[in-house]
Design goal:
With 97 residues, this protein is α+β, with helices and mostly antiparallel strands. 43% of the residues lie in helices and 20% in strands. Strands 1-2 form a two-stranded antiparallel ribbon.
Length: 97
């Protein structure tokens, strides 16, 4: 996998982790559920420009949980780290011995 694929996969995995936890806490069947990611590049600067995550839960989801599950998904740590940009420093290590 490329670093970009790992990054998008990390986002999908984080959403799956949070949604799975919600389902377990609220006794919503989720065995075999998936989160599928579709993404595309954007330019200037070259980056991931669009990501769409599709949460596929088995069976019928009780209507009162639909909006709550979406809020939980949006609240995942990786998603929040993209939406609220972190400060990123890049340094070149001094290789003196």
């Amino acid at each position: 996998m490329t670093p970009v694929e790992v990054s998008v996969g990390s986002l999908a995995g984080c959403v799956a982790y949070f949604v799975g936890g919600y389902c377990v806490r609220h006794h919503i069947p989720c065995d075999g559920f998936t989160v599928k990611a579709e993404w595309a590049y954007a330019e200037r600067p070259h980056r991931v420009g669009r990501v769409v995550l599709r949460i596929n839960l088995p069976g019928t989801l009780p209507p009162e949980h639909r909006e709550k599950i979406l809020r939980v998904a949006h609240g995942c740590t990786v998603h929040q780290s993209i939406v609220v940009s972190p400060e990123v420093g890049i340094e070149l290590a001094d290789i003196t011995s």
